[in-house]
Amino acid sequence: MPRGSSGEWFVFSFRSLLAIAVGIVLFALYVKILLFGNNSLEVLRSLEAEKTKVLQERSALREANQALQKHYFELLQITGG
User: Fold this and answer.
1) What does the DSSP 8-state code read for residue 69?
2) In this structure, are 7 and 23 located in the same domain?
3) In sequence order, which residues have a C-beta less than 8 Å from that of residue 8 and are 6 or more positions away?
């Protein structure tokens, strides 16, 4: 077959399309693993646990702050300040 005939063009086109399709599939798999893989799930769970811990710590600090403010105002009343 002479160079530039439609047969070679079809083979080149098919190979190019196949390579592009494989590239797209591999990229899609990479994005899927990146977004929904085990690592993302582990990070999500650890962040949820950390959020719960921080909320509990916030409640404890609020209670401690209330007790300290009560003590402070009692001292102010005693000293007359």
Assistant:
1) H
2) yes
3) 1
Is 17 found in the same domain as 56? no
pLDDT tens figures, 27-40: 999 998 888 877 77
Mean pLDDT, all residues of the chain:
87
Answer for the pair 23, 30: CB distance below 8 angstroms, yes or no. no
Q: How far apart are CA 47 and CA 41, in angstroms?
A: 10
Structural domains of the chain, count: 2
pLDDT at 42: 86
Tell me the mean pLDDT in the region 25-54. Answer: 90
Which pair of structure tokens corresponds to residue 17?
């399309």
pTM here is 0.52
* Identity of residue 51: K
**DSSP H or E segment with residue 5:** none
- For tokens 């530039």, what's the residue? 4
Rg (CA), the chain: 33
